[in-house]
Amino acid sequence: MLAVSLSTTQAKPINVPVVYYKLPNGLKVVISEDHLAPVVTVGVYYNVGFRVEPKGRTGFAHLFEHMMFQGSANVKKFEHAKYVEANGGSLNGHTDFDYTNYFETLPSNRVEMGLWLESDRMRSLDISEENLKNQQNVVSEEIRVNVLNQPYQFFEWIDLWENSFTNWNNAHNGYGDLAEVNAATIDDVRNFFKTYYAPNNAVLTVVGDVDVDDVKKMVAKHFAGIPAQPVPPRPDLTEPPQTKEKRVSQTDKLANLPALATGYHIPAQNSPDFPAMALLVQILQGDDSSRWYQRLVKEKELSLDLTGGLNYFGNEFDYNGPMIMTTRTTYKPGHTADEILAQMDAVIADVAAKGVTEKELADAKVRYRSNFYSQLESSFGKTHLLSSLALFRDDPSQINSLLTPFQDVTAAQVKTAAAKYLLATNRTVIVRVPEAKPAPKTGE
Amino acid sequence: MVLGLWTWVFVLLAVEITHPKSDKTKGVRPESKGPDLRNLKGIYMKPLLSIGALVLLLSTAIAQQKTPPPPGAARPLNLPKLTEKKLSNGLTVVLAPLPNVPKVTAILTFRSATNATDRAKHPGIAQIAATVANEGTDTRTSKQIKEELRSIGGSLSLASDADSTNMSATALSEFSTRLFDLMSDVTQHPAFPENELKLAQDNTIQQIRAGRADPNFLVNERFQKAIFGNHPYSFVVPDEKSISALTRTDLRGFVATYYIPNTSHLIVVGDIDPDKTFAEIEKAFGSWKSGSVPAEENPPVPVRDKRQIYFVNRPGSIQSGIYIGNVSIPRKDNDYFAIRTANTIYGGSFYSRLTRNIREAKGYTYSPFSSSNTQLKTGSFVAGAFVRNEVTGPTLLEILYELDRMRVLPVTDEELNAAKEYSTGNFSVELASQSGLAGRIATIYTYDLSKDFITDFRPKIQGLTAADIQRVAAKYFDTYHAAVVIVGDWDKVKDQVTPFGDVTMYDAEGNVITK
């Protein structure tokens, strides 16, 4: 039975074509042809995320991301969106722990439009006081709609990071305190642009139905003249090892049900333990077959849901600093956080003592491989991975061998990872319960 | 040496670019080419190019193009090739190879709505059936299903919406046979084990309670009820008593009636060989017994004789969540493309009128939107935003103003052309993903559209005129009979809201309450 179920089929080799080079100004350029559909994604990834924003300016990296749509020398305020959409595309930007990205997916014959737009704002961002004020209002509403006016208020990110980490760069609220978002000045914007938004601090990635040689010429035409800047200082992101469990209790004015979140510090990406840790996360909470889901939601019927992952916002490759494995669960009234934690701990103890079965690990690898393919499915998905690898490893061609260390993990390594990292002393727990209020009426 | 040159050019440009309007920059340019070049616009490249390599480098560096580059030659659309076949039991099968990754994506649609015929007797039965169907079959436990999915790198979930129940499933293509076996088992032999049903009932009740803390849930629920009244499309979630009353027998009866092949369609997209895949499907689904779905009769949607405000009170809310809209058309209606495009121009794209107004000009909100939701029997159009309490009234005014502007004035050629490009370009992106293509094909069958929908899409959009847009806006962006739904703190915003119409107030549980 076991032998039959083991998934021994050979995976198709991943073969993403990758052309990688640097312009003399230091801009990293990645081009990957894919002619299946007439689309292209142009992405620019800057090596700056909210970890490095200035003290007293929480949320600034994200506010700045908004400013990048407010005009440059030849593209007026918000016209970036007009040009992209009127050319059949879509666009967005995103601020993360360690990068900020800007991207547009376009019909592939409009690739030069995307390159021109990105080059214009990399070269010549042009911000007025009025536009800054406008986007401070917009970002304030973003924080209200996604955090402050919501039950739970994103506690499994904002509060969990604030409590899990001691180094301010890692710990502070990346969405930002409203007062600090609104205190930002135009000089802050200009300085941040000059420091971080330089070609030598960025990756330009083009993926899709294009010709590499054509794109190279366009890239040279639009980006080669953008001046390099002094390399920005790399902040100290080191985090002292945690030696004692942290527990935080919170009440929630808006939520109707209790919830809890845990964060465990995980090994660095270049640690030999890292691939095993990633598979362990898959086995504990990767899907509905996972051990924690089965225990909490199905067997003990304590929880309604279970979410989280090795990197709550992204994947194993798109961050560049200390990280926690996040787990969040909403549980049923009448139960306690201790009951939940006892079950989670029992699962960990079992893995740490007995390990995982060969079938469980083999299946987790299949799941892992399948999820990885999904990231390669769209031109944006490939853009994201290639850009991350260029930005943080200076080697986007790793995309084709990225799976190997994860497919080589042994059951013994998974067991070791559980015993070594999933210790109560290495975690932070936040319990968030509804503020006492009149019992809700039921039914309609 | 080259490095030196580049560095020099960079310094030159750094000054120029950082302070483009400063007089000082003109003085520091040793070649005095900067200002002149800028004035020469497009023509300066030629003389410079003839001077040689060094100047070529310089010109490349300086050439900050002032105007957007023109598009290149149009690329082939590579529209997917669809194969439609039928099994002998009547199941419609549509196959489309899209080998972008070695995976396969399937959608199996049953003609059983959330709100179908049984709703009077068993509200929510389609929803609970969809939740529990993959929690155990006659031969597999819930856990075995989840473990089988993990071992094929797959997923399988069911969800019921206004017109149908959709089973969405994926797997690595190397395991497609096992995926079809599992889909077939869940379709034909769901066991609805007592313990799984009980758990799903309890959890659904709790999840709905949790949802009532979320303003997005509340505003959507009230909007559906306001515009669809007694029509089954008003259904969002069942009440707790109805959930608890459902039995295993009810669910087995429901599934036996509605999960039948001759009214269902199975769409499979991905790294497949159509002939081989069809043979696998035939093997897995061939024994599925056909049947008949009872006819439905639905009450009409309500007609408002004036604009009406439906206010869901959420004390302590620091924002007002606003939805404004009305009933529109079924997907099959000829006006589908015109409304879709009107929506793009109004609030359905980033560079839309609503976003430019209340976000980029006024800073009232982060995510204004509008949406055209067309379904089998009818549809809706909605515009909305979440805004801080202080600008609730001004936002209502601007949303209504922009709707009226669409009704009384034609859109510009520039706006119309941009919206056409936006729709057709993004359509290509949608069709390039397995889930996007499968979902799009599924709508053709669910909404009984032309089989040529995908190839017709571009010409239908391109053929629209400004008069078409104005005509549908006048008809469906009707501000005078609109439902205005607001979720917020009544005490904080009532003075801003009452000028816009009569108010009916609700609590989070949906009870009408007095102001």
Q: How is the biggest beta sheet of chain A arranged?
A: 6 strands, mixed
Distance between the termini of chain B: 79 Å
Overall helicity of chain B: 40-55%
The Cα radius of gyration of chain A reads: 23 Å
Mean pLDDT of chain A: 95
Number of beta-strand segments of chain B: 13
Write out the strand line-up for the largest beta sheet of chain A, numbering strands in chain order: 1-2-6-3-5-4
Keywords:
heterodimer, A: 444 residues, alpha+beta, 5-stranded mixed β-sheet, 41% helix, B: 515 residues, 7-stranded mixed β-sheet, 6-stranded mixed β-sheet, 21 helices, globular, disordered N terminus
Write up this protein.
The complex is a heterodimer of chains A (444) and B (515). Chain A is of the alpha+beta class. Chain A contains 17 helices and eleven strands. Chain A is 41% helix and 16% strand. In chain A, a hairpin with a 5-residue loop joins β1 and β2. In chain A, α2 crosses α5, α4 packs parallel to α10 (212-223) and α12 crosses α13 (337-354). Mean pLDDT of chain A is 95; it is low at 1-9. Chain B is built from 21 helices and 13 strands. In chain B, α16 (392-408) packs across α20 (466-476) and α17 (413-431) packs antiparallel against α19. The N and C termini of chain B lie far apart (79 Å). Chains A and B meet through α3, β5, α4, α5 and α10 of A and α1, α5, α7, β5 and α9 of B.
Structure, briefly:
Chain A contains 17 helices and 11 strands. Chain A has 444 residues and is α+β, with helices and mostly antiparallel strands.
